[in-house]
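Re: [help] complex structure
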Amino acid sequence: MINLTNLRFAWQKKDIINIKALNINKGQHLFIEGPSGSGKSTLLNLLGGVLTPQSGDVSILGQSLNALSSSQKDSFRANHIGFIFQQFNLIPYLSVLDNITLPCTFSKARKEKALKHSKSLNEEAIRLLAALGLDDSELLQRSVNELSVGQQQRVAAARAMLGSPEIIIADEPTSALDSDHRQGFIKILFEECQKENITLIFVSHDADLKHHFTHSINLQQLNQVNFKESI
Amino acid sequence: MAILSLAFKSLLNRKLTFFITLFSIAISVTLLLGVQTLKTETNNSFMKSISGTDLIIGSRGASSQLLLSSVFHIGNTTNTIKYDTYQTISKSPAVEWAVPISLGDSHHGYTVMATDLSFFDYFSYANKQHLKVESGKIDDDMFAVVIGSEVAKKLNYKIGDEVIVTHGGGEIEGHHHDNIPYFISAILSPSFTAIDQSLIISLEAMEAMHTDNHGHFGALPGETLLASGHTDHDGHDHEDVNHEEHHDEATHDEHDHEDANHQEHDHEKHHGEATHDEHDHEKHHGEATHDEHDHEDANHQEHDHEKHNGEATHDEHDHEDANHQEHHDKATNESHRDTQEQRVARLLKIKPENINAIFVGLTSPQAVLGMQNYVNNFQAEPLSAIIPALALQELWQFFSLAEMALNIVTVFVVLVGLLGMLSIILMSLNERRREMAILRSVGARPGHIFGLIIGEAGFVCFAGIVLGVALLYLLLAVLQAPLASYYGFYIDINMLTSNDLLILTVIQGSALLIALIPGWLIYKYSLSDGMSIKF
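Output below.
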């Protein structure tokens, strides 16, 4: 359901991404191993349709991103992909619930899907939080900056899952967590993705996490850009 | 709309910078509108200083000087014109009324203006409003003084108080005419013109002070001398002596007799019957006492009748006698007794020789230019005539440079406020690139991010404007009373004018325009950063 073909992207005349082919199936949990500098964040931006490749195409759910205008790509992303980042995933001036329901501001489709699960967006957000092990209602009153990193990451996961997008892209979501929390977080994430039949793309430089996943790819091998040459 | 609510929440999150920016804009808006209000109100009160007067005539010289001295009581008034000139001009067929004005003395820094009673009938300000009496009564006595509201308030004067006038404008310098005290007969209501800060006396009294000996007519040896001094006067003087003989408070009666002279003289000046009647009333202050004496003195009664134009008025007066007597005794007789010099001054029947200006009302507006021409080519002495409305405009032009400077300063203050906002937004951009990346990841377009910044600037500026306007009205409401009472400057609190609204729109527009800079920057960042969090 995600197909990359002859994808090339260069920034300021330097090749960063050159991927012949990559196919990810629906419901797959894919681990992409990539140290920093391997073009990881560029790849994620390409998948999200934020960056446009110089050549080649990204097709998601049968939709070629090249065929979309940039604003169409923005709403496509909002409708179908949830993102979890490494750290500081949350907007500091929004409440926990506002942070979780933020994608619905930009995606009607996800709003509608979320409302299929629950009566209101906030209710759905609370349901997801509970599923992710955050069922303390006192937590909701707190500013997002007062949450622990582990709690913040789970709030971010709830946001990525709200409105059941087909794909979740997690970029180093556990690197700020200690090993206990890391295991717990991945476990919960897997469970929820399984339940919702969400395709999970998990990007990390930490090869130790590889064993959790059925599929894994090493970005340095996949990406044919010779970084030593270009640097 | 969602973006605007985000912008609003984002602002609330950064309360400190938000409120600092908001206040700096609010203060600049208050200042700008305040200056506008002050300008309009100053202009208004300036233009309202005189109305209904078609021409002001003075000695030849700068028109602004004549205007400043005669209307605003500012500056030296060394140039005089002859009283005869006034009489000639007042008889001119085009002239409906003419009021002589004489300046140059002061009382505790307040201008003393000498004129005659017709001043109160003809002088008007603002929308042809006449001066109103707050308390007391305009007295036709030679040494009666009518004081402006501010003089009364500041010096805490009451009806019947005595005042002494200083020659020259200063508060300290100059010759004190302490041999000629005045009694306050009336206090005027505030008019927010120079009259509020003025004392109005009779021309004769002014002249008396300015005779060669400054009104020091010499002490009188006694009543005999006084009587003999009167021999060249006819009629009245007999009674004066008589009254003094049989009445303790005869001094007052003397006023009235002298008033008669004075009055007769005034009547010559007045053309209208209405004023004539009014004067009769005023004369009547002393009639109560007169009537008492009348029984003893047939002559006197006859004389009184001569003074009164008709029996009807006389009768009417009699009804009021009791009142008058009470008031008058209290106000004048007890508190004011003539000094001997005043008595002499009265008896000398001093006639004004020089005045400073003439306020003229014409029979028709068309006559203005012709009359001005006539005055400018006056044979007997060099004169100039100014049209107050025009001269006021011209004088106001004089201030336009200051007005312009003030405008420029306030515009820069607003600009500084907006630049403060710009720098605060720009400084926040870098730390907000993460926020932008998150927003992009959940589907925000670069346009949304741009809108977020513009929206924030718009909010801050709008809130600043609202607060600024509120602050302005608060200030005006708080300052209105003290400004009016301490500075005689009355600020009318009005709705924002269309000009004000235009200014506010321009400010709001400028804020949005200025926000294009950070907006464009963040747009560029969000395109290049995408969802990558850079920090």
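The longest strand of chain B covers residues 95-107.
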